[in-house]
Amino acid sequence: MKTLNTRALVTVGMLSSLSYILMLLNFPIPPFPQFLMIDFSDLPALVAALIFGPAAGILVELIKNVLDYFMTGSATGVPVGHIANFIAGVLFVVPTYYAYQKLKTNKGMTFALIIGTVTMAILMSVLNYFAILPAYTFFLNAPAMSAVETRQLIVTAILPFNIVKGILISVVFLLLFTRMNTWIVKQETYKSA
């Protein structure tokens, strides 16, 4: 694993701040429940991962969620939503990073973002079924959903939402990546020198 030097830590700090601001600019998409919000806060984490490695991307995701928890709080009193957001971000950024490392081209980045989207959507569906939704019902003191209701919510809302979120983030990142690719390569070269 790549170690993070002072320059990397400063850059990660700046990207984490940007990620936190982007997290505040969240919005719902009408066909999905109101608690599922789209934001583009994973974009700085992707940039951090591409330049400094997956640990930097994970660190950006962690700092963003810790900042948001302390600044906005949580409806449950515990950071269930923030933990879910952190896991979703990691499940998107890390597979994207490793897939791109195998295919360092623009088409490779498109393929890597598809892998990241699919990984996030599928694993978040499983985690929502077994851990996240039960945690929400426990901490909100709400009546538990039946297994059928939980599966229906995941299949009709959570899985498609994560696919749409991954696609939107991927499209915006690809637009940025075509402009930033030279800079990212230069940063990787400077980092390894």
UniProtKB/TrEMBL annotation:
It is found in: Cell membrane. It is a multi-pass membrane protein. It holds the Pfam family ECF_trnsprt. Belongs to the prokaryotic riboflavin transporter (P-RFT) (TC 2.A.87) family. The keyword Transport applies. Keywords: Cell membrane, Membrane, Transmembrane, Transmembrane helix, Transport. Probably a riboflavin-binding protein that interacts with the energy-coupling factor (ECF) ABC-transporter complex. The chain crosses the membrane at residues 6-25, 45-63, 83-100, 112-133, 153-177. This is Riboflavin transporter. PANTHER family: RIBOFLAVIN TRANSPORTER RIBU (PTHR38438:SF1).
